[in-house]
What we know:
The chain has 340 residues and is an alpha+beta fold. The chain has one domain (23-334). It contains 10 helices and 13 strands. The strands form 3 sheets. Strands 2, 6, 7, 9, 10, 11 and 12 form a 7-stranded antiparallel beta sheet that branches. The two termini are 33 Å apart.
Amino acid sequence: MKKLFFLSLSTMMMMSVISCSTETNDELLNEKTIENVEDWDHIQLTITDSSKQLGKYNALGYGYNVLGEYANENSTTLKIIDTDKFKAEHHPRLSEENLLSNEYTENYGEDAAAYFQMISKKVSATQQFKVYGKTIPFSSAILSNKKYDPHFIYGNYSHIIKQKRFRLNESHELLSNYLTANFSKDLEEKTAEQIVKKYGTHVAVDIYTGSIIDMIFQAKTTNPDRASAARIGIKTIVGTDNEIDTQAASKNYEKKLFYKTRGGDKSLAMAGIFNLKKMTPTINFYNWQSTSTTENAVLVDFGDNGLIFLYDLVKDPSKKAELKLYIDQYINENQVVLES
Length: 340
């Protein structure tokens, strides 16, 4: 049985790869994804720094496109709420909490749609959708018609070090009085399509910052219980369950593991893909993990109500209706759908 053993902070992943920087370069990932899984054992991904310049409270008050990645600065857009002005006038209602907590989370699904349904339920504003589709890094997941290949199962395991939580504890009505001048101007001058392209679908109002180690498992399976196969697949790799059914685990094939770090010391960050048929991963994340601070923290999670629809901050009834119609249609037409 192939396992990735965890030591501690409570458990620290042991694997050895060469360090890179922070945000995954999607074009390189697509170039490097090799169709014949027999041909390679490990792909080290070159990653570049995120060019996003966020505010004092990180992504709080910024636009967010839920068709991107889950809780990732790559999917933030431009500032919508003037958090500095709001803080000055309603100091207690913008909370800033120091946490320094460690959390371990897992998600899995019998296919991409089920996997993203589980992830989407983390936030109340997206629980009725199957969004955050760019979280899956494998180009093999998406077919030429932009639908997802139904043959793959998915699971992910994340170790999140939460440094801070930022929240806007106020009603939509009050928050709508603190829109940035640029966003207010665009509401008057731009179409709904133009606004969504520039600002996204939602606004971040409750976020966590810190660092994260994320591992995403992809495979095919002969197991008729595909959801169980996905869960067993990721648990087998990270070694979090000593009672794994090895016979069930052996029914998974064409197995790949993507890993990446975000936050922490950029010079120690790493990302890559393992072909699990060819090798057993051995990674050491300890040096990187020990560098996590409030200064190098990035967006890593949302609160249960961490996103609100962009149109909920619009006062003009006509513009609000226009945006709601467009955003609802935009999400429904572009959320994760399987090839039938």
